[in-house]
Amino acid sequence: MPIEHVVARAVTKPWGVADPRPWTQPNCDGTAIGELWYERAGADRTPASLLLKLLFTSQPLSIQVHPDDAFARSIGLSNGKTEAWYVVEATADAKVALGLRRPFSPSQLRQSIEDSSIAGLVVWHPVAAGDVILVPGGTIHAIGAGLVIAEIQQRSDRTYRLFDYGRQRDLHIDCAVAAAKTGVAEYKVRSTRLSQQRTLLVANPHFVLERLDLPPDTCWHLDAARETWLLALSGTATVRSCEIAAGGAIFATFDQIDFHVGDAPLTCLVAYVGEVARKLLHPLARSHADGASSGRDLTPAATAPAAPQCHETWPRRNKR
Ligand SMILES: [Zn+2]
Question: Which of 35, 64, 149, 194 has the fewest CB atoms below 10 angstroms from its CB?
């Protein structure tokens, strides 16, 4: 199965940003973009089991919870939603919330949602670029303003809101109380250096997330035998004659990816299913990678930010 450049779909959110460049282009009508969903191109593509997103926040997101696998299955869903965040950019006062200050009974949790006191009961943590946070299904959480976050998650659309800062969107009190684990949550994941190039950020039964830091003008072979997502954060890479830059992503499965790093260092995230791959990456002689790149072509879909459509009307990014 060939590797694919993926389609990046911008999703409007009330807490998003007007100008998410360089990650993607602004909406022509100036509406705020909160999420960029990376999806397999083409309507006939089977949805992947993981969902990769970029989030852009100018206001806090709702305080929310997702089901874990056990709760999801108890209500007839195939899986829950555990997610992990990699902080790409953060303002000096940026923060995220994970878990509650103390254990709550279900009735106490219900009461705190109904009287909005839940907003003062979640535990906020300052975050900086490079931080990694794991959010197991069932963990009450929120993301503050001033952040760009790369998120990898089990594919699920179940989000139960507990508090929404007066934004008039629905709360999901019954489901939130049933799905939430109302205790203190573990915060931050300790990264593990696997090699000079590989840093293991998260490994759990649902996905593995790694960061790759590769020197300029080098060639590499990436083993994508399993469902694998690659998201460029900085630098460029040429993959089978197509170039990806910051915000560009590829998807591959049952495949091998040979690629060439451009004239700046490449930092990218790689997410895949299964256990931590022992041989995910190895260097190639340049002639090998260049030869491979002239073989099969990628779908020439937009992975690097699309050409601007409406320069003149773009609003400036809100100061966060
Ligand atoms: Zn969430």
Answer: 194
